[in-house]
TrEMBL record:
Keywords: NAD, Transferase. It comes from Timema cristinae (Walking stick). GO terms for molecular function: histone deacetylase activity, NAD-dependent; NAD+ binding. GO terms for cellular component: nucleus. PROSITE patterns: SIRTUIN. Residues 1-115 form the Deacetylase sirtuin-type domain. The keyword NAD applies. Gene3D superfamilies: SIR2/SIRT2 'Small Domain (3.30.1600.10), TPP-binding domain (3.40.50.1220). The keyword NAD applies. This is Deacetylase sirtuin-type domain-containing protein. It comes from the Eukaryota.
Length: 115
């Protein structure tokens, strides 16, 4: 999270990314969902279909406490599909999963994928 008391945490509006379309130049929005926002139902349906058909699920760098995403991997694990969690620490869902790789994802994921 940004630290407001740190001087360089403030970014001027001019330095933020803007739309390059003619006559627009509005601020660009990152492709994320902010806390408190709803998720696009089409995306949730697409995610659900992908999860129904997967034969392995990787959970990388999440607290596993923000819903609805926090329910995806446990639902996959409940069907007997292996789930591998990569995280700096255990989460509330860790014990639902077949594999847990503890440590920085930048090193644990490449190491596990090279096996």
């Amino acid at each position: 999270a940004p630290e407001p008391e740190v001087k360089d945490s403030c970014v001027s509006v001019e330095d933020l990314p803007h739309c390059s379309e003619t006559n627009c130049h509005g601020l660009l929005r990152p492709h994320v969902v902010w806390f408190g926002e709803g998720l696009d139902q089409k995306i949730l349906i697409k995610a659900g279909k992908a999860l129904e058909n997967c034969d392995l699920c990787l959970v990388i760098g999440t607290s596993s406490v923000i819903y609805p995403a926090a329910m995806f991997a446990p639902q996959v694990a409940a069907r007997g599909i292996p789930v591998a969690e990569f995280n700096i620490e255990a989460t509330p869902a860790t014990y639902d999963f077949k594999f847990h790789f503890e440590g920085p994802c930048g090193s644990t994921v490449p190491e596990a994928l090279s096996l």
